[in-house]
Amino acid sequence: MTTVYLIRHAEAEGNLYRRAQGHYNSTITDRGYRQIAALAKRFADIPIDAVYSSDLARTCTTALAVTCPKKLPLHTSEQLREVGMGVWEDRTWAEITRTDREQLVLFNTDCGKWHVEGGQDIVSVRERMTAELARIIDAHPGQTVAVFSHGMALRMLIGTLQGLTLAEIDRTGHAENTAVAKLACSEDGIRVLYRDDASHLPPELLSLAHQAWTKDKEGLEAGIWFAPSGAEGHFDVLREGTVIGAVSVGKCENGVAEIEEYRLERGERGKGFGIQLIGQAVSYMRSRGCDTLRCEIAKSNAPGLKRAQQYGFTAVQETAESVVLTKYFGYNEEYRLKKLQEAIKLSGK
Distance between CA 325 and CA 298 in Å, rounded? Predict the structure, then answer.
């Protein structure tokens, strides 16, 4: 008997910034690291013989919950990746709702009919996931294996193992970040002992509760999108076709870019849009080889300082009148280990 744990990655940029990210290589959020710490506690007393993950940063980082404490190597595979989103990659869900509503509804409610330019066929995703699982099981007879992958890809895999059609899989709901499924694999077949279990997460670490689309029957969400204003690095923030703010970043110098403008109209504040402006800055600067955002905030702007810290910025310098903060969004392994260790320490308090 081979036991397999299937685990969805922790909260990543796409989940937080509300952007479509399939093969886009996003990183884990601060809440995501706390979820990984909780996952590590869950698996602390569970023997694991091997660990596999998709080759994307968000799954590899989540896998640290098992590889780090158990000192196991990580085996990566492109076959465990999420559905490739094609032309949707790294666009906000609100923009996709506006420009490609029909296909988005299909993606959420009838995925077998979904198709966008460059996107992966759902059936082919299901086939590569089941084939890769079979390969992993064959490589570890009688052992226990942890496999880290992605939300949609795991829904396809687990639903197929349960004998569900694509239409039935569409109705199975969505798993939380770091949710776990357990499989018992023998010569008689594969049994799904349980699925979508996130009981290791306290309420404050749940991700789906913060996402409006889960409450819409078609999986749609109103929100904001971004349009270049004409100046390099400057974007208008739009909602329902109206400009409601702006975000701009300067040129990348030594891997660092300054946030030069960050603004929402007063009536649009407090609606959860602010973090998405940071997401746009991250997306734009990463595509230009940057890995750090920098901002300077007056000490008198207490709400701004609090918000920056909530958005993952860390104070690095202080003057009599202001605080300089930075946010790293690169892939450095030592940084990821440090963030996890900090989250583990925090969870122990």
Answer: 11
> Model's pTM, two decimal places?
0.96
Contact assessment for residue 335 and residue 328, using Cβ atoms and an 8 Å cutoff: yes
Backbone angles phi, psi at 305, to 5 degrees: -65, -40
Q: Which two tokens mark 325?
A: 């903060």
Write the DSSP string, 191-204.
EEEEEEE-TTS-GG
Please name which of 170, 9, 140, 12 lies closest in space to residue 81, comparing C-alpha atoms. 9
- Tell me the C-alpha distance between 12 and 32, whole Å: 6
80: tokens are 């465990």
What is the bridge-based pairing of β-strands 225-228 and 189-197? unpaired
Residues 24/85, Cβ–Cβ less than 8 Å: yes
What lies within 8 Å, CB to CB, of 254 at 6+ separation is none
Cβ atoms 61, 36 nearer than 8 A: yes
DSSP code, position 176: P
β-pairing verdict for 180-186 and 189-197: antiparallel
Contacts of 92 (CB under 8 A, 6+ apart): 17, 18, 19, 20, 223, 224, 225, 226, 276, 279
What CA–CA distance (Å, rounded) separates 235 from 215?
29
pLDDT at 24: 97
Q: Quote the CA–CA distance of 326 and 294 in Å, as a whole number.
A: 4
Residues in Cβ contact with 33 at an 8 Å cutoff, skipping those fewer than 6 apart:
10, 339, 340, 342, 343
pLDDT by 10-residue block (mean), the chain, 349 residues:
97 97 97 97 97 98 97 98 98 95 95 95 96 97 98 97 95 94 94 97 92 86 92 95 96 96 94 95 97 96 93 95 97 95 84
Which residues are CB-contacts of 162 (< 8 A; sequence separation ≥ 6)? 192, 195
| Cβ atoms of residues 178 and 8 within 8 Å | yes
pLDDT at 17: 96
Instruction: For residue 175, give both structure tokens.
Output: 């798993």
Q: Which residues, 6+ apart, have CB-to-CB distance to 318 below 8 Å?
A: 324
Q: So what's the pLDDT on residue 349? A: 53
